[in-house]
């Protein structure tokens, strides 16, 4: 409904059905009519949002959305880091002013100043936060649709062989470090998961993962696993033969951490690598560039070599989607297609032999 005010201006009162929802005042009647027509079209299409909501600065909405997000401490830390980039790029704009072009320009600028990896993480936050704004009815459509960033390729895995892993275990100076190396090399657990293990989480079936540590703001913070779901990882008997006695000994000492420091605190990744892993690599004559993550590669490689499927390896590593496992470790399946062709050749040969035998029987 359009009405002329005593001041000479024109006010539009907007209704959805019989409910009053918004109003706007204009100097010219034609501007009032145009606005009313646009709003009526949006209401009819089901994509109308309150003009005041759409005027909310993206920075304000981003803070509100972030407050509703949970997750493991490291996940929260990474999300906050990416959100800072998103806020710097688009934060001053009202939600209604964020267009697909502005999103693409912001991502291109971030890519140029930092890296494709950073821009990809920022896009994830933009997509999730602006998608939530659509769900809340603040904006009619998601401006990140169609936005793409070339994701940085993951580093090629560099696993150890069985012999190299056991050689490294043999040069460890303490039983704790030896058992930890073997457990990491055959379970593929993340660093935050291995240091969060308690003695009672080791059993004759393997290890049970329920939480993980993350370094946040210089502190070791315990939180959920990356995929939020607890998981069990079986281990070879030879590894369990060393792990179980160690775990039992730690339980008797009433220690909280299966592989903790002398003070029963969790090891920090950098300190452990510098003081324990690197000297051991030198003694074992192995590349000093090997990091704790390479034991994750090792577990995946040895499992695949033993015939494990992509799904089995995915469950062991705690990947939410098996496609993630295949993306990271595709190069560790070098004989997959060769093996397929061999089986197909064998099946063809058997089928042809069977067909010839049947024909021979018919001729007789």
In round numbers, the mean pLDDT is: 87
Give the fraction of residues assigned to helices. 40-55%
Q: What share of the residues does DSSP label as strand, in percent?
A: 5-15%
Going across the biggest sheet, name each strand in turn.
1-2-3
- Helix count equals 15
Question: Low-confidence runs (pLDDT<50, min 5 residues)?
Answer: none
Task: Encode the helix/strand succession as letters.
Answer: EEEHHHHHHHHHEEEEEHHHHHH
- Distance N terminus to C terminus? 96 Å
The count of β-strands is 8
Set down the secondary structure blueprint.
Elements: E1 2-4, E2 10-16, E3 19-26, H1 29-45, H2 51-54, H3 58-67, H4 73-90, H5 100-113, H6 116-135, H7 162-170, H8 175-187, H9 191-194, E4 202-203, E5 206-209, E6 212-216, E7 219-223, E8 231-233, H10 237-252, H11 269-283, H12 292-305, H13 310-317, H14 322-329, H15 336-363
Antiparallel strand pairs: 1-2, 2-3, 4-5, 5-8, 6-7
């Amino acid at each position: 409904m359009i009405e002329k005010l005593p001041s000479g201006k024109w006010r539009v009162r907007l209704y959805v059905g019989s409910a009053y929802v918004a109003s706007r005042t204009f100097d010219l009647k034609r501007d009032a009519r145009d606005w009313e027509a646009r709003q009526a079209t949006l209401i009819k299409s089901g994509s109308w949002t309150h003009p005041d909501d759409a005027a909310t600065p993206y920075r304000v909405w981003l803070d509100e959305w972030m407050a509703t997000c949970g997750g493991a401490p490291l996940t929260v830390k990474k999300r906050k880091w990416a959100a800072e980039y998103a806020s710097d790029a688009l934060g001053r704009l009202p939600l209604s002013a964020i267009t697909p072009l502005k999103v693409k320009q912001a991502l291109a600028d971030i890519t140029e100043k930092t890296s494709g990896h950073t821009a990809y993480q920022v896009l994830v936050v933009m997509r999730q936060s602006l998608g939530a704004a659509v769900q809340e009815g603040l904006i009619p459509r998601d401006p990140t649709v169609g936005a793409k960033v070339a994701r940085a390729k993951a580093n090629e895995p560099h696993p150890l062989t069985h012999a190299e892993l056991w050689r490294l275990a043999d040069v460890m100076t303490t039983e704790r470090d030896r058992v930890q190396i073997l457990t990491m090399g055959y379970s593929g657990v993340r660093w935050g998961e291995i240091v969060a293990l308690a003695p009672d989480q080791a059993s004759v079936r393997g290890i049970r993962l329920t939480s993980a540590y993350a370094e946040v703001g210089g502190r070791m913070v315990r939180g959920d696993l990356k995929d939020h779901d607890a998981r069990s990882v079986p281990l070879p008997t030879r590894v369990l033969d060393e792990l179980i006695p160690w775990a039992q000994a730690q339980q008797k000492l009433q220690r909280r951490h299966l592989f903790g420091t002398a003070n029963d605190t969790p090891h920090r990744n950098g300190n452990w690598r510098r003081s324990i892993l690197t000297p051991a690599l030198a003694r074992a004559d192995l590349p000093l560039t090997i990091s704790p993550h390479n034991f994750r590669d090792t577990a995946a490689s040895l499992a695949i070599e033993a015939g494990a499927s992509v799904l089995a390896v995915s469950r062991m590593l705690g990947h939410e989607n098996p496609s993630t496992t295949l993306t990271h470790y595709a190069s560790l399946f070098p004989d997959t297609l060769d093996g397929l062709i061999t089986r197909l050749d064998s099946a063809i040969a058997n089928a042809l032999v069977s067909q010839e035998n049947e024909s021979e029987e018919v001729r007789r």
